[in-house]
């Protein structure tokens, strides 16, 4: 049975299901792709009423305001992101622990360990990165495209084209644009499927590509009013490989600029990594300078040999690392900072290599 309800009405009426349901779990970083794709997939599933479905964003409610691009796109679509369900909302923890629920992982392929979700309850993975599924009952609907929102768009276009209104189309179009650098074929992040999905959603939302992308990019790189801790946790992903916890945070400014704003930022990284109990904490910086795009990387660990082994492994895999001197960390034995001459080395490419590296280490 299908339903005919607008996205705005659906979002405004979101609540934790009181009966066994399908939990659509967004990625732990809660970036734009995770948030929009989980919401839109839950909306897609609810359209057919096969089983109640609810998207959960696994961050505290207050932290959604750190995701400037999420807030910007929702407001542009005249939608309120505060209507989403968050980890610290009433009854959400109980919902996540319901043994009769099933789970779909959106924009990630491994459920956060701290949520304690049994492997047998995870029934589907929908991600835009190639992945090995560690769950015996999960169907893999992932595909190597630039954005998970592309896969969600294709589902609507194939099975429920009439259910996409201008607001939903705008959310999906904006997400695809931001994930693919404005559909830039030279970015290494854009496929023909992304182009096709974005074209349909842009037409449906009656939106111009360039203006939408520029607005979202400006919001993503905005750090006005954010503390160093906010900058770190706004887009941080934690992993566990061979029982070794590690994390990668993406930040939208250079380390030199960060030092100017907050000379104590290395200490903030140190404290945040300790709070997450990370063996290694990596920070990937992406920023524009003089109209040109650059990347930098920093690695922090209590054991300097772990940092050096990590850097050596990445260099073996083709990543060029040029030593960067940061005054605030001068003489520190738990940091190394680098410039990346090749700006294509994003977290998307570094994360699998770090997983390989830690697979070869013992804790």
Question: What's the short story on this structure?
Answer:
This protein is of the alpha/beta class and 363 residues long. Helix content is 38%, strand content 18%. The strands form 2 sheets. Strands 3-2-1-4-5-6 form a 6-stranded parallel sheet. A 6-stranded mixed sheet has the order 7-8-9-10-12-11, with helices on both faces.
Strand order of the largest sheet: 3-2-1-4-5-6
Domain module tally: 2
Q: Estimate the helix proportion, in percent.
A: 25-40%
Question: What would the principal axes of the Cα set say about the shape?
Answer: globular
- Beta-strand percent range: 15-25%
Mean pLDDT: 93
> What is CATH's topology name of the largest domain?
inorganic pyrophosphatase (n-terminal core)
What is the assigned CATH homologous superfamily of the largest domain? inorganic pyrophosphatase (n-terminal core)
Name the structural class: alpha/beta
Radius of gyration: 20 Å
Low-pLDDT residue spans: none
Order of helices and strands: HEHEHEHEEEHHHHHEEHHEEHEEH
Distance between the termini: 51 Å
CATH class of the largest domain: Alpha Beta
What is the number of beta strands?
A: 12
Structure description:
This protein has 363 residues and is of the alpha/beta class. The chain has 2 domains: 211 residues, inorganic pyrophosphatase (n-terminal core) (Alpha-Beta Complex); 132 residues, DHHA2 domain (Diaminopimelate Epimerase, Chain A, domain 1), CATH 3.10.310.20. 38% of the residues lie in helices and 18% in strands. The chain is built from 13 helices and 12 strands. Strands 3-2-1-4-5-6 form a 6-stranded parallel β-sheet. A 6-stranded mixed β-sheet has the order 7-8-9-10-12-11, with helices on both faces. Helix 5 crosses helix 7 and helix 6 packs across helix 8. The protein starts with 6 loop residues before the first helix and ends with a helix. The model has no long low-confidence stretch (mean pLDDT 93).
């Amino acid at each position: 049975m299908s339903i005919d309800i607008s996205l705005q009405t659906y979002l405004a009426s979101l609540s934790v299901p009181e009966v066994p349901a399908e939990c659509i779990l967004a990625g732990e970083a809660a970036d734009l792709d995770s948030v929009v794709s989980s919401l839109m997939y839950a909306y897609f599933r609810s359209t057919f009423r096969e089983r109640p479905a609810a998207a959960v964003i696994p961050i505290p409610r207050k932290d959604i305001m750190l995701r400037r691009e999420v807030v910007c796109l929702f407001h542009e679509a005249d939608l309120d992101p505060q209507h989403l369900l968050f980890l610290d909302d009433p009854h959400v923890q109980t919902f996540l622990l319901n043994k009769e629920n099933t789970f779909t992982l959106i924009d990630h392929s491994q459920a956060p360990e701290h949520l304690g979700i049994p492997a047998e309850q995870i029934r589907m993975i929908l991600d835009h990165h190639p992945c090995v599924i560690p769950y015996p009952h999960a169907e893999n609907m992932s595909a190597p495209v630039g954005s998970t929102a592309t896969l969600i768009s294709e589902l609507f276009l194939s099975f429920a084209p009439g259910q996409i209104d201008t607001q939903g189309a705008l959310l999906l179009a904006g997400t695809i644009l931001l994930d693919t650098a404005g559909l830039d074929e030279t970015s290494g992040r854009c496929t023909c499927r992304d182009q096709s999905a974005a074209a349909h959603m842009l037409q449906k939302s009656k939106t111009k590509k360039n203006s939408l992308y520029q607005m979202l990019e400006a919001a993503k790189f905005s750090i006005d009013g954010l503390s160093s801790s906010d900058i770190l946790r706004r887009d941080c992903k934690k992993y566990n490989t061979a029982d070794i916890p590690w994390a990668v945070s993406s930040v939208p400014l250079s380390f030199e600029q960060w030092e100017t704003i907050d000379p104590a930022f290395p200490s903030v990284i140190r404290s945040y990594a300790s709070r997450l109990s990370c063996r290694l904490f990596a920070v990937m910086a992406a920023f524009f300078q003089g109209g040109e795009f650059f990347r930098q990387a920093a690695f922090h660990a209590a054991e300097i040999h772990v940092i050096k082994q990590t850097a050596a492994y990445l260099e073996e895999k083709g990543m060029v690392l040029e030593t960067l001197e940061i005054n605030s960390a001068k003489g520190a034995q738990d940091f190394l900072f680098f410039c990346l001459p090749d700006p294509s080395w994003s977290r998307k490419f570094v994360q699998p290599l770090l997983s390989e590296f830690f697979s070869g280490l013992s804790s």
